[in-house]
Write a structure and sequence with these properties.
This protein is mostly beta strands. About 0% of the residues lie in helices and about 55% in strands. It contains no helices and 17 strands. It has strands at about 5-10, 15-20, 25-30, 35, 35-40, 45-50, 55-60, 70-75, 85-90, 100-105, 115-120, 125-135, 145, 155, 155-165, 175-180, 185-190. Strands 3, 5, 8, 9, 11 and 12 form a 6-stranded antiparallel beta sheet that branches. The chain has a 4-stranded antiparallel beta sheet with strand order 14-2-16-17, with no helix packed on it. A 4-stranded antiparallel beta sheet has the order 4-6-7-10, with no helix packed on it. The protein is elongated and about 75 Å long. The chain starts with a strand and ends in a 16-residue tail after the last strand. About 25% of the residues are buried.
Length: about 200
């Protein structure tokens, strides 16, 4: 959802205004569940995924019934083939119906990535399922000043105004300041109540 909202930032500083940035990013899965796969016994598995922040949980389960033999389940990246990267592995007990993996996506870069489940039976044979594609979007909403001019020198209390796009996605606005001694400082303009001489304020109404 794109929207235009008026941001007012109230700052108490003797400074030179340098910049403001809005930060947002997130991981997404597509699809969140699939039975596409194959192997020794055909398509017998399902993989589902859910993401919370940078943490993803993949669950690989039998489409019906339980595993008839013990074995090992692998969470693989890139391909389900044996030479694919093993991101994690879990033992599978005979009679179990599913295995889950939890993974911190921020530990790695280079998205999008394709994730697969691969089951190898201790009795011989294998099954695979996937992929679920994990993507990362670094969507930084734009923020443009209307007053005072960026880079201008301000003394005492002043109000900074601008227009932000995609304001629903903004997590924080960071303002970079330099004082008369050349010392730089980054401050965060928080969502707050009413501007005062000791607070910084963003009005999204």
């Amino acid at each position: 959802m794109n929207s235009k909202r008026f941001f007012t930032v109230f700052i108490v500083y003797c400074c030179v205004l340098l910049a403001a940035t809005a930060v947002y990013g997130g991981y997404s899965l597509s699809p969140t569940s699939t039975t596409a796969g194959g192997g020794t016994w055909g398509s017998i598995l399902r993989i589902t995924g859910s993401v919370n922040g940078s943490n993803v949980t993949f669950t690989v389960s039998k489409q019906s019934g339980t595993f008839g033999s013990s074995g090992t389940m692998y969470l693989k990246v890139g391909t389900y083939e044996p030479w694919g990267v093993d991101r994690d592995s879990r033992p599978v007990s005979q009679g179990a119906s599913s295995v889950s993996f939890t993974h911190d996506l921020s530990d790695y870069s280079g998205y999008p990535k394709n994730f697969y489940g691969r089951y190898e039976s201790s009795q011989g044979g294998y099954a695979w399922v996937g992929p679920i594609t994990v993507s990362y979007t670094d969507s930084t909403p734009s923020f443009s000043w209307s007053s005072p001019p960026s880079g201008s020198t301000q003394t005492g209390s002043f109000i900074v105004s601008g227009t932000a796009s995609d304001s629903d996605a903004i997590e924080r606005v960071t303002i970079a300041l330099v004082d008369s001694n050349g010392t730089s400082r980054n401050i965060v303009a928080y969502q707050d109540s009413t501007p005062s001489s000791t607070s910084r304020f963003i009005n999204t109404s």
